[in-house]
Design a protein that fits this description.
By secondary structure, the chain is mainly α. Helices cover about 100% and strands about 0% of the residues. This is Phage shock protein B.
Length: about 80
């Protein structure tokens, strides 16, 4: 009689465990999909960050060139005014 009670408890525990594992697996599929999407977004963000840095460097270069050009224009105007 005790054997049957122990066996029933073990079987019941295994059924509960199987249901818990099944529920967990059902939740993992969307989580995996979300993780892959986040990784793709992270790669894209890194790419955009590199592009933004390149644009920022280009703007700094153009600003420096504009300042030099303005100085040259000022020198030319000063020579014409003399």
């Amino acid at each position: 009689m005790v054997k049957w009670i122990v066996l029933a408890v073990v079987v019941l525990a295994l059924v509960v465990l199987a249901l818990a594992v099944r529920s967990l697996q059902a939740r993992l599929v969307p989580l995996r999909r979300a993780a892959l999407t986040l990784l793709a977004h992270q790669d894209r963000a890194g790419s955009l960050q590199a592009s933004a840095l390149a644009v920022q460097e280009r703007v700094a270069d153009l600003q420096q060139r504009a300042e030099i050009t303005q100085q040259r224009i000022a020198v030319i105007r000063a020579k014409r005014g003399s």
